[in-house]
Input
Amino acid sequence: MEESELLVIGGASGVGKSSAAFALHDLLSAQEVRHAVVEGDALDLAHPAPWHSGIAFRNLSAIWANYRAFGYNRLVFTNTVSVLEGAAIADAMGDQPRMTAVLLQATTRTIHDRLGRRERGESLDAHAERSRVAALRLDTEAGPAVHRINTESRSPHEVALQMNSLLGWVG
Output
């Protein structure tokens, strides 16, 4: 079985993680690169929130086992703090992947504008504040091995091209 590879894409809400991941999926698909994409935020999206239970990692483990059973060895994983949890994500995969970590960044104004396309009123204010705090934490705590990509005034496709150049994945 081929060695697995992992791309973790992190960043504050509104920075463009999902859009960039979907654009990368399109790019990799066009190049016939076998891969899977998992939106980490959905792995523990429940009420009441089970964040401290470790269920997200258990769910990832189960999902990745299914992909591996079908021959997949490359995973694109998005989650706000994924660049800080790379080791735990790799452990959940269970097969010691080669990991590339990317932190997407944008200005507070741009993030607020993007969040404003999906949130309104108090919800927008709350999301914008959480995003601002997360951006500061991520920039401070993400180590030097984490690649930083500014999404400011860039299309998801342009961001995907830059991430793809870091990966070197071929079909």
